[in-house]
Amino acid sequence: MSSKKHWSPGSDVAVQSVERSERGGWIVSGVLAPNGICPDCGLHSRRRHGWRRRRLQDYPAHGDEVTVDLAICRWRCQAPACPRRTFSDQIASIARPFARRTSRVGEIVTHLGHATGGRPAERLLHRLGLGVSDDTVLRQLKNRAQDSGESPTVIGIDDWSWRKSQTYG
Ligand SMILES: [Zn+2]
Question: CA–CA separation, 73 vs 47, rounded Å?
Fold first, then answer.
């Protein structure tokens, strides 16, 4: 049981199973834990309203890609006085909204992108077992820069890539 913990993308995820995928990678299935706690009133709900899957690319293992497959539940708040009727389990500690990879993979993509630029970062990431396109690297840099208000840095990186590709024809 404890060995499964090592596959968790964060302390808020309880891993249920780890399996080989058809493509030769790993599929880590898990749920958020604790779950079912209303963000408004803090009451623990036991009435599940529905659920959906969220797939995220995570750190590779033994050079193979790892996909975290999370079951994200939607709950009905049972507190009569609470203004919230339903709520979802939060994965903010694991990934950003609409992200296709965990935040910790996003960090690596950002650091490599900053250090080397889009194309070299793409090649290095593939060697590390992280299939990420150069477009994704640049998008990741833009998103991070927007968050921290550093947009001039991003313009510099785009500019640099463009000029480099020109130089090398
Ligand atoms: Zn509530």
Answer: 10
Best CA proximity match to 128, nearest among 76, 73, 60, 71? 60
Q: 10 Å Cβ neighbour count for 102?
A: 23
pLDDT of residue 128: 87
CB 89 within 8 A of CB 35: yes
Model confidence pLDDT, tens digit, residues 56-85: 999 999 889 999 999 999 999 999 999 999
How many angstroms separate the alpha carbon of residue 85 from the centre of ligand 1? 7
In the reported structure, the alpha carbon of residue 140 is separated from the centroid of ligand 1 by a whole-number distance in angstroms of 35
Cβ proximity of 112 and 121 under 8 Å: yes
CA distance 132 to 86: 35
